[in-house]
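_Full entry_
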Amino acid sequence: MQATEHLSQTFELGFTYTRSTGPVVGRFLTGLRDRRIIGNRGSDGRVLVPPVEYDPVTAAALDEFVEVGEEGTLVSWCWVNEPRAAHPLAKPFAWAMVQLDGADVAMIHCLEAPGEDALATGARVKVSWAAETIGFITDIRCFTLLEEA
């Protein structure tokens, strides 16, 4: 019997391509880079943030963009006592649904708060921008509670 020769080569499997964000998501991310939050208006008049490419009611392409505020209302939240390495904050925080002023739907992002007891549905929150904004969702570092007057 002849010995069989085995050949091997080390390699790394990867997907080396770039995806375009397109005109809708791209506009949203460019807005974040410029510290502005952009949504779009659906056929029913609602302002959707983040913006969507197609109307949820008619499926038609949407092209009316609207700038919304940096403050909003805490709609719902879930407290994270023990953040994992992949989480956006290294200390306890909340995943929050925030309806920004001028928007008709809530967006999900992280919320920094002194503790779970400080949170309540209906609380007012504001954007805390990253020190350097580059056009990623992480340009919104997190939301924080607005100080009561």
Observations:
- Residues 22-145 form one domain.
- DSSP finds one helix and eight strands in the chain.
